[in-house]
Every structure is written in structure tokens, then in C-alpha cells.
Design a protein that fits this description.
Elements (H helix, E strand, L loop, with lengths): L2 E2 L2 H16 L9 E7 L3 H17 L2 E7 L5 H12 L6 E4 L9 H5 L13 H8 L8 H12 L8 E5 L6 H10 L3 E5 L6 H6 L3 E4 L17 E4 L3 E2 L5 E2 L4 H4 L5 E2 L6 H26 L1
Helix pairs in contact: 1-10, 6-7, 6-10
């Protein structure tokens, strides 16, 4: 029977550490996260409220810009430029997805790399690929933190990442490669997918397809990180992996909910604290 990776517990440990650091600071000088939410996507609204509560619980300062779905690309760029130039703001999160008429890649260019706490600016993406210091997207960073917390080795291990999104799949593959794993990045055009999954010591499922990965596909003893959060017709949440089938097959697995999700928020707070620290050091030097 597999060990369930407790993302809530590990995330709370990260938050407790951050709270201890922040509580000693002047309330007016604490890290500040600004979130930009465009449109009325219900899931995005829930995520933003979760981030607001998390900031408040740790003593971070935060603000949220809630914009209508009719917001233009130019208006979004202007807000990003204004927020990016505000020295009181240390981290900026552009909540995705954006309404269909907006181009996220163009918007990322208006995120200052030093405040881009979800690692979406091309400079931060390049730093990740080059294994240089920069901000890493929160979900891949959370995955790495979970693997470390459970002492799951990566060096030389065969890893299969299912999904090639800019926010999760591609940066996860790069991050695992930087830690000496041998990574296969799979997507919707990949052939013989069950065979590839069956060779992997670590499977990261970030497809957004409920119950796509069957337990019989997994290599016995594999570790499974299920990033998918899918709502079924009956209202329940499930991952991309059939959990009941995987439990008897793998050694470690993240449940949904309670696995990767809490780590994403914890890493957002961690990145915001790091952005504040870097900004504070720059002020001290200048």
C-alpha cells in the first residue's frame, strides 16, 4: 500500500517558518503580494481568496485588483507597469487563465523579473532552463519540496511528466532535469504513453484530465505526483490518476485534494518573501 504524501503538513511547515521570519518585521515593512484577477472565472476567484487568506495568516501585506472581463490588453499592461514600479509591492501574481481575448505571453513581458513570483517572465524561464537563480513557478517548486520532504531521490531516476504547459509541465521537467533526473516530457501527441509511464520511477501527472492515468500503467514502486484538480459531475474533486488503483501499485502518491495544491500556495508565499528579501538587500546596498 502506497504512502500518501501529506501536502497539507509540509505546506504548514513552510508557512510556520515564514511566519516566524515575518512576525519579527515592522508591519509596514513586510512582504507585499499583489494579485491581478481578470474576469469572473469561479475557480480563479476561489484561488485568489485562498491566497488572500494565506497572506493575512502569515502577516504579509496583500492587495487584489479585480478587473472586468472586458479589460483590454493595453489596460492590463498599464496596470502591470504601474504595479511593477511600486516599491511597496514585492511580488506580483497574474491569475490565470485570462479571458480569451487577452494574450498572457505579452502580459508576462510586463512583469518585472524580480517581482515575478510565479516565474512566468521569459527571463525567469531562461534562468530555470540554464539552472541559474531565478523565480521558479510555484507548483513545480512545490513538487520539488514535497519530494525532498519525503526523501525521494531524483539523481539518475527516470521521470515522466505528463503535460507540457508553461506553468507546470515544462518547468517541472526542467527542474527535475536540473536535479539530475532523466526526464521524458509527454503530451497529447505522445505515442505508446502507457509503456512510457510504466518505465518511470516518478510520474508527474499535470494533464487536467480526470482519472486519465490507470494504476496498471504504473511501474511497481513508482512515486506519483498528481497535480490535476478536476471536478466531477457529482461535485467531488479528483486527480488525473485513478487513486484507488494506484495505491496498490506505487510507493508514494499525492492525494487530490491535499497533495500538491497546498504546496502551490506555500511556494507563492515563499517566493514573495524571497522577492522582498532581494529588494531589501538592494536597498541596503544602494
Amino acid at each position: 500500500m502506497a504512502t500518501l504524501i501529506d501536502g497539507k503538513r509540509v505546506a504548514q511547515e513552510v508557512r510556520d517558518h515564514l511566519h516566524a521570519q515575518v512576525s519579527a518585521l515592522d508591519p509596514l515593512a513586510r512582504p507585499c503580494l499583489t494579485v491581478i484577477l481578470i474576469g469572473d472565472d469561479p475557480a480563479s476567484a476561489v484561488y485568489v481568496r485562498t491566497k488572500e487568506r494565506a497572506c493575512a495568516a502569515l502577516g504579509f501585506r496583500s492587495s487584489t485588483h479585480r478587473l472586468s472581463k472586458e479589460t483590454t490588453q493595453q489596460q492590463l499592461h498599464a496596470l502591470l507597469d504601474e504595479t511593477g514600479s511600486d516599491p511597496k509591492v514585492h511580488g506580483i501574481l497574474l491569475q490565470l487563465p485570462l479571458p480569451g481575448h487577452l494574450c498572457p505571453e505579452d502580459a508576462f513581458l510586463h512583469l518585472p523579473p524580480g517581482k515575478d513570483v510565479d516565474g512566468l517572465h521569459p527571463l525567469n524561464q531562461a534562468r530555470l532552463l540554464a539552472n541559474r537563480q531565478g523565480f521558479v513557478p510555484c507548483t513545480p517548486l512545490g513538487i520539488l519540496h514535497l519530494l525532498r520532504a519525503y526523501e525521494i531521490p531524483l539523481r539518475g531516476r527516470r521521470c515522466c511528466v505528463l503535460g507540457r504547459s508553461l506553468l507546470v509541465g515544462k518547468p517541472t521537467a526542467a527542474l527535475l532535469t536540473n536535479h539530475d533526473a532523466t526526464v521524458t516530457l509527454c503530451h497529447s501527441k505522445t505515442e505508446e504513453l502507457p509503456a512510457i509511464i510504466g518505465e518511470a520511477d516518478l510520474v508527474v501527472a499535470c494533464l487536467g484530465k480526470p482519472h486519465f492515468v490507470r494504476g496498471a500503467w504504473l511501474r511497481p514502486g513508482a512515486t506519483v505526483i498528481d497535480v490535476g484538480i478536476n471536478r466531477l459531475d457529482n461535485g467531488t474533486l479528483c486527480g488525473d490518476v485513478v487513486l484507488d488503483e494506484a495505491l496498490s501499485r506505487c510507493s508514494f502518491i499525492t492525494p487530490v485534494p491535499g497533495g500538491v495544491g497546498p504546496m502551490t500556495v506555500a511556494m507563492l508565499l515563499s517566493n514573495t518573501y524571497e522577492a522582498w528579501r532581494q529588494a531589501s538587500n538592494s536597498e541596503d546596498l544602494g
